[in-house]
Amino acid sequence: MNIGEIARRAGVSRSTVSYALSGKRPVSDETRRKIQDVIDELGYRPNASARALANGRTSTIGLVFPPAGNHYTGMQLDFIGSVVEAAAAHDYDVLLSPSGVDSDRSFQRLLGERRVDGAILMEIRLKDDRVDHLAELDFPAVAIGRTAHPESGWWVGLDHTALAAACVHHLADLGHRRVAFVNRPEQLLRAGYESAHRGLEGFTKAAAERGLTVRTYCCGDDAASGQACLERILHDDPATTGLVTLNEAALGGLYRGLAQAGRHVPRDFSVTGVVAGRWAETVTPQLTAADVPAEEMGRRAVDLLIERLDHPGAPPRHHLLAPPISLRASTGPAGGTPSA
Amino acid sequence: MNIGEIARRAGVSRSTVSYALSGKRPVSDETRRKIQDVIDELGYRPNASARALANGRTSTIGLVFPPAGNHYTGMQLDFIGSVVEAAAAHDYDVLLSPSGVDSDRSFQRLLGERRVDGAILMEIRLKDDRVDHLAELDFPAVAIGRTAHPESGWWVGLDHTALAAACVHHLADLGHRRVAFVNRPEQLLRAGYESAHRGLEGFTKAAAERGLTVRTYCCGDDAASGQACLERILHDDPATTGLVTLNEAALGGLYRGLAQAGRHVPRDFSVTGVVAGRWAETVTPQLTAADVPAEEMGRRAVDLLIERLDHPGAPPRHHLLAPPISLRASTGPAGGTPSA
DNA sequence: GATGGTTGTCGAACCGGTTCGCGTGAAGTG
DNA sequence: CACTTCACGCGAACCGGTTCGACAACCATC
C-alpha cells in the first residue's frame, strides 16, 4: 500500500507514479490510466509523513489555543470553528496547541519539530512574547488580535478602543451619566491582554469626553463572577444606570445580578458591550452590542496565513475590524422608572 | 539543524545521537554530555515528520469535529478543550477534522494518509457509518457517544435515556402533568443522532409510566428557534407547565419565550433538561439539570484511546455516565400562581 | 540526413529520522 | 590466560514519498 507497490502493479517506476499524481511532468494517458486503476483498486493514499518529509511542507497549520483549564468563551469556539473550516477549504489541517501551563513546550513541539507550516495565535497580549518570537524567526504566523506595535505584523484585529468608545457614546446619547465597565479577569488585564487594555482605554477616554462618572471592574469569566461583580457595582454606586462589558462569559451573571437587585433591563438599567453576535442573542432581553465577527475573523486569519505561506517575503498585511453596534433590546433612555 | 549536523559537531555518528536521545541503547555519560551540549547550543529538535515516517507513529490524534457551518454548542467547546488538554498530558497533539460537507474526504485525509494514530469521534448516530467503518478497519478510535450496538466498541457515553427519564420523574414528582420535550433539530433526529433518539425515548417512556400528557418538539440550535418553539408549545397546549430539553443552544430562547408569554420560572413553569453544567448556570433562574460532564468525558475518551494505542488488541472498554440532576432554581411545584 | 526540441520513462539521490548487525576494547570469570 | 560478557559506537538499510539528470523514441526543420 505504498507507492512502490502501486508502481510494481502498474508496471512502472515509482517516479512515474509520483508524476502521474502530481502532474509535474507529462505522463502518457495510457500509463496514467493504468496507474489510476491500480490506485482505485487498492484505495491507495500517499503517506502524509513521507510527503511532508520529502517536500518540507506539512499542509497543517497550528492554532495556538488559549490557556486551557480556564473557562472558554463562546467567541473562542466561533474562532476555532471558522478557522478549521477555512483551513479545510485550502486543504490544510488544523493542529490545536494548548498554550496553557507550559506554553514553551507546546510551542517547541509546533515549530521546533516542524509539525506545522504556519500558525494562528489567539488571545494576544499588548506585549506578546509569542508574537515577538515568531516575528524574529520569520515564522509564518497570523495573530487574531494585535500587540502594542502592530505595524510590522500579520494580524486580524478588532478595534476594541473604538468599540468600547461606541458603547459609551451609545449610553451617553441615551442620557446615562453613571456607567460601569466590566472587563475580563484581573489576571488577564495584568497579563496585558489587548482586548482588556484597549477596551478599557476606549471606555475611559470616551467617558471622559462625555463627562460621565465611571467605575471600572475586572470580572471572572463565569456567571457567578458576573453576578458578584454586579452586586459590587450597585454597592459602590447605587445610582449607576448602565454598564459596558467585554466579558461574554459573565454576561448571564450580570443579568442575574440585575434581576436580583430588582433592576429591570432596559427600563432601569442599560447593558451593552462587545460580544459575539450569536451569544448576544441568547440573553433576555437580547444584548445591544458591538457584535464580534468571530467567523469572519477566523476566516480572514486563515486567508492571510495562506497568502503568507504561498508568497514568502510578502509585505505584512492586516485587517482591523470595527463592526457597528447592533441595536437590540438591552439599552434604553436613562431615568426610566427608578426602582426601590 | 538535523541529526547529522548534531552528530558531526559532537564528533559521533547519527545513530549514536539517536540512541542518546531515545535511551534505547546505552551511551557513555561523556558522549551523552557532548551531544547534549551541542543540542542545547543549537536548540535542536528532531523533525516530527521524519520521526513519524521512521517509526510509524505520528503522536497525533484526530478529533472528528461536528458538522461545521451549523451552530456549535457550548458542550462541544468543552469537549474540545478537555480532549486537547488530556492529549497534551500524554504528549499527543490533536488534529481537528471537520466532518462537515465532505466527510469522506477529511476522513481519508486522517486515516488514508496516516496523519493520526487514532481518532475521537463526536456527535455519534445510532447507526453511524464512521464508527462501523473504523471498527471494520480495526482503526483505534473512541466515540463520545454510542451507537445502537455499543457492546463491541470503545466509547464514553451519556445515558441519555436515563437522564431524560430522571428529568421527567423530577417534574412528575413536583406535580406536573402536562409536559413538553424540546429536542435537537429535526434534521439531526432524522439523521439518527443518539442523544436526540435516546433522550426522546427516555422521555416518552418515563412520561407514559407516570401517566403524563406530553408533546415533543424538535428545535433549531439557536435562541430564535428556542423562542419560536416555546410559542408553539404554549399555543398547542396552554396548560403545559414544564419542559425537558436536550437543546443547550436553544435554552436562552426558551427562557425568553416564557418571559414574553408572562410565565414566571419556576412559579408558573418549570424547565429542566440535560445541559453542560457551566451553561446551565448562565441562565436566570439557573437551570435544574442533569449536568453533562463534558470535561470528564473528553478526558476519559483520550485515556481510553491512549490505552488502546498502547495495547493493540486489548478488549473494548467503555464508560457510561449518568450524572445526577443538579437542583438549581428553574423547577418548582406545579400549580404555583397561574398567571394571565 | 544530420540537428534540435518534445514527450515519456527510469534510476538514483535525497528528506531526517530509527534500528539492526557488527566490531572493538575493557571488565569479569574459571 | 583464554573465554565469555557487556558497554559503547559505527555504518548501512529502511520508512515512503519527491525530484533531478539522463536517455530513448518520436516528430519537425533546414
From TrEMBL, chains A, B:
Tell me which domain of life the UniProt entry assigns to the organism this sequence originates from: Bacteria
Query: HTH lacI-type domain: from which residue to which, for each copy?
Result: 1-55
Annotated segments matching region Disordered: 313-340
Q: Which UniProt keywords apply?
A: DNA-binding, Transcription, Transcription regulation
**KW Calcium (keyword) present:** no
A single Gene Ontology MF term assigned here is: DNA-binding transcription factor activity
UniProt-listed PROSITE patterns: HTH_LACI_1, HTH_LACI_2
Transmembrane stretches, start-end:
none
- UniProt KW Transcription keyword: yes
Q: Would you tell me the protein name for this molecule?
A: LacI family transcriptional regulator
From which lineage does this chain's organism come? Answer: Bacteria, Bacillati, Actinomycetota, Actinomycetes, Kitasatosporales
